[in-house]
Write a structure and sequence with these properties.
The chain has 243 residues and is α/β, with parallel strands linked by helices. The chain has two domains: 46 residues, no CATH class; 182 residues, 3-Layer(aba) Sandwich (Rossmann fold), CATH 3.40.50.300. It has eight helices and eight strands, in the order βααααβαβαβαβαβββ. An eight-stranded mixed beta sheet has the order 1-8-7-2-6-5-3-4. Helix 8 links the parallel strand 5 and strand 6. The longest helix has 15 residues. The radius of gyration is 19 Å and the shape is globular. The N and C termini lie close together (6 Å).
């Protein structure tokens, strides 16, 4: 690994979850939503919600990550469940759309309706005109490459998620698919971000953040296939180039 950077994320939960906490607090204490927002903000160390929101906009990790990605990159974005990897992946995608790039979301987890609703909740004002959404059990390297075969350089795609690309027996093994996608990304100049599970054996008391060796992959995967990695846990994030 080269140029590894560890960042402390500013909040105990993503903004949309903090807002959900405020809505629940508003109902529970029978106070206005704005007062509840300020109460949540104070828990996070800010005097008002507006200050928290301003900091969130300034410190958005998705914007920082996107600025460091290059055409042809394969990015591994890994975390244990509930640590925010899907949210961060979609925020990176939304940042790309905000820059008028083409983007795609390939999900073997969400339905198209669920994916569309999630994106709309994260960026209600964003234009999704340049976004392709594919949600199917048939998603594989072949389908991803066919979908992006005319994509211009700089197109960003998020794949949800790495470990189930070869779940069906009729698909090539994961290593073969990833080698094909690596060559495709380099040739076309597209950026592929793979969400990934981290094995339950990862212990944050030993290491505060997971590493590439903690990836939960029943089928062999070569770390060198990725050009960059990003790992999340406990409100911290590491970002690194891969040798």
């Amino acid at each position: 690994m080269l140029a590894t950077e560890v960042l402390r994320m500013k909040f105990s939960a993503p903004i949309y979850r903090l807002k959900r906490q405020a809505r629940l607090l508003s109902r529970e204490k029978k106070i206005s939503f704005s007062k509840a927002l300020d109460m949540v903000a104070r828990r996070e160390g800010f005097s008002t919600w507006s200050l928290l929101a301003a900091m969130a906009a300034q410190e958005a990790p998705a914007r920082s990550i996107l600025a460091r990605l290059c055409d042809g990159d394969l990015v591994l974005l890994g975390a244990r469940p509930g640590q925010g990897k899907t949210l961060l992946g979609l925020e990176i995608l939304i940042e790309a759309l905000a820059q008028d790039r083409k983007a795609a979301f390939f999900s073997l987890v969400y339905t198209r309706k669920e994916a569309s609703a999630l994106l709309a909740s994260l960026a209600p004002q964003a234009s999704l005109e340049n976004l392709t959404i594919a949600t199917s059990d048939d998603i594989s390297a072949a389908l991803i490459m066919d979908t992006l075969k005319l994509a211009p350089p700089g197109t960003l795609a998020v794949v949800d998620y790495l470990q189930i690309l070869d779940q069906q027996r009729n698909k090539p093994e994961l290593l073969v698919q990833m080698e094909d996608l690596q060559q495709f990304a380099r040739t076309r100049g597209v950026i592929l971000v793979f969400l990934s599970q981290v094995h339950r054996s990862y212990d944050p008391e030993i290491r505060p953040l997971p590493e590439i060796g903690d990836i939960n992959a029943p089928n062999r995967i070569e770390p060198g296939l990725f050009s960059k990695t990003c790992f999340l846990h406990g409100g911290e994030m590491s970002f690194a180039d891969v040798e």
